[in-house]
What does this fold into?
Amino acid sequence: MIAVKDRKLALWNIGIAYIAFIIGTFCGLLQVFVRNDSLQLPKFLDYYQILTAHGVLLALIFTAFFIFAFLIAGMSKTLGSFGPKVSLFAWIGLWTTAIGTTMATVMIISGKASVLYTFYAPLKASGWYYLGLALFIIGTWFTSFALLGHFVAWKKKNKGQFSPLFAYMTTATLLLWIIACLGVVATVVFQYLPWAFGLTDTINVELSRSLFWYFGHPLVYFWLLPAYMAWYVVMPKIIGTKVFSDSLARFSFILFILFSFPVGFHHQLTEPGIDSFWKFLQVVLTFMVIIPTLMTAFSMFATFEISGRNKGGTGLFGWLRKLPWKDVRFSSLFIAMLFFIPGGAGGIINASFQLNELVHNTLWVVGHFHITVGTPVAMTFMSVTFWLIPYLTGREFPKHLQKLAHIQIGTWAIGMLLMSTAQHLLGLLGAPRRTAYAGYNGNESAAEWFQGILSNHVTMAIGGTILFFSAMLLVYIVANLMFVAPKVQDEKDLVEFPIAESDTSHTAKFLENWGIWVGIAVALIVMAYALPLYDMIQNAPPGSRGFITW
Ligand code: HAS
It folds into this structure.
């Protein structure tokens, strides 16, 4: 059992995460209906406003708060409870992040920041929106440094020992986050804030987008790595076995630190001002970042098979039947992983220079991120929710809620399958993303493209509605686990915090030498970014004034 004060900290983070989840998913529901022209929004709301709220609240706020809750709980569990300084920093982090979130949300709701979660210039939001985002990042840094401080203190006390796998992975994730944020902090502080508050008239659009994507791609791995932590460390315990290979797991996280950064240009392959050499280089490096995921896939299959065979499964696939399908903590993780197969394959298509011409800025990309962050990541967080909240609140996870959890996971999978398939197909047929309903001026041949059973905005809306139902079911389960489910009487009946045993006897010491890895990461960043960024600043295109198009 972790200390009460650390539990409280984690619970506050989860609480804020789920408030963002409620508003964000409701905006998603509205969106799918606007896009198939069956809903007219009231005058005070417009499509781009709800699209911005949806993206910011789910992709940035829900994920970040949930991730920090998971990391806080796991670090306290594996390294011991936090000292006063760590707690203080983590609380300052929580409140700064919450204030930043509130500022940004208020600006979006009041219609002063309909710039979507990527806030591409020259769209111009109120300066208070960018300030809110800056506070959000600063807050996450406080919490990150608090957790890193806890790690360093543990290492000092346990000289020469390997850190527990969970703590190691947390450290890698936080380093990735801190280095990634440097890009977005640079553009917000030096470009957006002076521009939005009227100190400068114009903005260098190309530079701002490049700095954003320097951050934006590692951001997706900041979502993914905590999910991988649950796959590597939590899942084996749930299915009754050990981590397949401690060194493989650690090394895959190191590869993410190295290759997450020098790849941001694959989001800008159609950006005219970047020389094709730099795009080519970053595309090649993008293919390197696939390797740790394939290592993870190999490791997961091996873990499943070992566990299934230990339980008596025979034949080529007999072990699959022995896995604990009735345990929703496991079935949700498994479905999450299944979704990542087409999700990752779509990523490879996006990253391929020529194919990107076809899919860029279409609904295909929206389909892609719903089956990466929207399912593998989000469903892993749901799986974690099912045991982490009762563990922290000291409540039971009663049978009727477990049944509901199965329905919730099933409906999420069905809704997402329908919605994301429709999005992928519509995108291939040319439906643009980041746009409200388009009737193509009643053009008949354009309308025909969108009348297939799956390539249809109605299918997308049906999927979206099922997803919203599933989201509300999840909120019901969360509220019950937080406040209603019966308290356990005896600590031994407490829901388990599953951490699998990990054998470090073959793990190489240099994997724990962070200086080497951060050094190589910096060298790769300099190689991929120094010259193109220098060029963008030295030979800057004429800046753009701001546009408020809504
Ligand atoms: Fe992506 C756009 C390329 C992974 C999220 N991506 C986005 C956007 C988001 C996003 C949010 O190159 C939109 C941004 C925006 O608003 O503009 N993506 C990739 C590549 C990968 C990738 C190469 N993306 C992710 C992940 C995300 C995510 C993960 C969130 C968590 N993505 C792109 C590109 C674009 C893009 C371009 C820009 C498009 C454009 O033009 O705008 C790779 O990391 C993928 C590697 C993964 C695999 C899959 C292997 C998986 C296997 C199954 C796993 C199974 C396991 C075990 C572990 C190669 C093999 C299962 C066990 C069983 C028994 C089943």
Notes: The two ends are 51 Å apart (CA to CA).
